[in-house]
């Protein structure tokens, strides 16, 4: 049978503050991490590898806000309709931006779902900028990422995607 002293001790222990688990620190994007992961995991990627002789050779740079950015020249070789960048190339650029955003925090993942919204045509023979940003990292092994393609500072295409850590596939 439980004594008054035991009940008092249990009640006292219940009122004691319990340690709060440490918050999971958000990973900090890094250029050196991005380059190391890309070289190790994407050595011949069509979009971002400097080693692929037939590739686009985009170089993504980590920005102060944690996004990654690359410039793409939109050459006429990538044409679909006259004067327009092929939508498949646009989609590949957006996908690569999101992949490289994950590389910048050391995550190697594959595209599980990709939604692209084409807002206006991307013109040929003018440069474009593609930006990738991580939206959600708290649902490991699934990451939510977004990207935008701009030309002359005008948003022409955007994408959102879910990426699954490659080892979990």
Write the layout of secondary structure elements.
Blueprint: H1 4-15, H2 31-41, E1 61-62, E2 68-72, H3 87-103, E3 109-118, E4 128-136, E5 142-151, E6 154-165
Structural class: alpha+beta
Mean pLDDT: 89
Name the beta content range. Answer: 25-35%
CATH architecture: Roll
The CATH homologous superfamily: Hotdog Thioesterase
Per the CATH scheme, the topology name is: Thiol Ester Dehydrase, Chain A
Note the main sheet: 6 strands, antiparallel
Helices and strands, in order, run as HHEEHEEEE
Widest sheet: strand ordering: 1-2-4-5-6-3
How would you describe what is shown here?
With 169 residues, this protein is of the alpha+beta class. The chain has one domain (27-168): Roll (Thiol Ester Dehydrase, Chain A). It is built from three helices and six strands, in the order ααββαββββ. It has helices at residues 4-15, 31-41, 87-103; strands at 61-62, 68-72, 109-118, 128-136, 142-151, 154-165. The protein has a six-stranded antiparallel beta sheet with strand order 1-2-4-5-6-3, covered by helices on one side. A hairpin with a 5-residue loop joins β1 and β2 (68-72). α2 (31-41) packs across α3. The chain is globular. The chain starts with a helix and ends with a strand.
Question: Which labels suit this protein?
Answer:
3 helices; 6-stranded antiparallel β-sheet; single chain; alpha+beta; 169 residues; 24% helix; Thiol Ester Dehydrase, Chain A
Report a brief summary of the structure.
The protein is α+β, with helices and mostly antiparallel strands.
